[in-house]
Amino acid sequence: MNRVAKMGIGLRKKRNEWLGDRAGWMIPGGQWCGGLRLLVMAVLLWMNGMIAAQSGIGYYFEQGNAAYRQQDYAAAIEWYQKILEMGYESPEVYFNLGNCYFKQNDIGRAILYYEKARRLAPDDPDVAFNLELTNLKVIDRVELPPRFFLFEWWDAVKYFWTPAQWARLFMIFWIGFFLLAGVSLYLSRERLRRLVKTGLWVLGILVLLSGYFLWVNAREEARRIQAVVLQPSVTVYSAPEENSTEIFIVHEGLKVDVKEQRGDWARIVLPDGKQGWIRKEQLGII
Question: Of all residues in the chain, what percent carry a pLDDT higher than 90?
């Protein structure tokens, strides 16, 4: 937990957390006449803004790292949060925020920011290790009901890799398929042509499977909103109102799915299927 991520951060525009959509750059439409000039001006202004933003972000990031090394975790959090307030995010910023909150024994927010870091950098071993270590401090241990083994096997295959990893596999198989198809055009020996044809069938199947799993994972990720309980103890209600029936209690650090939103309330679903309503302010969206 003493490690902080260094500069070289892969910045991106932050998404709208509750709606799940990505923020992007917009260039107003206009008449075609003079459009090229407006486009060039817009690009130049955008580049100037990006350069200024990057310099400010770098300064905030280094100040946050310096505060962390001095064990001033509250100040480090303030510096890192300035980057997020500018509308940017990166796995390094989220990772360092997770470390700061862990040092402050704020388990809910530590897990929240490690999860955010994992969303952007699913292969990072440091993020995975810190998240696993922090999850050991979570009070709630949700036991999943037994499922039919074929469903278990199917989910294990479907979620074995993240959408980004499935995308890389899909591209590798796709490129390999067309390269092998190109090679087959120049082969004259029948035996080699049969081997290449078999390889094309195998790669074709792998392209279809990886493309399917990529589509399934990407669709579910786009629709799914996950959150982390931030407060030490939260009462879950049967309806989105304080005077409704209290169903059960959850604790900080628990990861849940958000299925519905009504005003200041969110309907959450636990991994074991239990569900109820809590206030949005008690959750942190991953």
Answer: 58
Only one residue has tokens 């786009």, namely 222
- Report the distance separating Cα 20 and Cα 218, nearest Å: 13
Window from 144-158, 160-174, 188-202 with minimum mean pLDDT: 144-158
Please tell me the distance from the alpha carbon of residue 161 to that of residue 49, in angstroms, as a whole number.
Answer: 36
Candidates 268, 276, 274, 271; CA nearest to 246 is 276
Our CA angle for 226, 131, 60, nearest 5°, is 85
Q: Compute how many other C-beta atoms are within 10 angstroms of the C-beta atom of residue 121.
A: 21
> Tens digit of pLDDT for each residue in 189-204?
888 888 999 999 999 9
What does the chain come to in residues?
Answer: 286
Residues 95 and 113: beta-carbon distance below 8 Å: yes
More confident residue, 20 or 102: 102
Q: Residue for token digits 């030490």?
A: 232
Phi, psi for 227 (deg, rounded to 5): -145, 165
Taking alpha carbons only, the member of 165, 203, 124 closest to residue 116 is 124
Q: Which residues pair with 278 in a beta bridge?
A: 266
Q: Most distant CA pair in the chain: distance in Å?
A: 80
SS3 state at 89: strand
| Distance, CA of 232 to CA of 251 (rounded, Å) | 5
When computed from its CA atoms, the radius of gyration of the chain, rounded to whole angstroms, is 24
pLDDT band at 6 (very low <50, low <70, confident <90, very high): low
* Mean pLDDT (the chain, rounded): 84
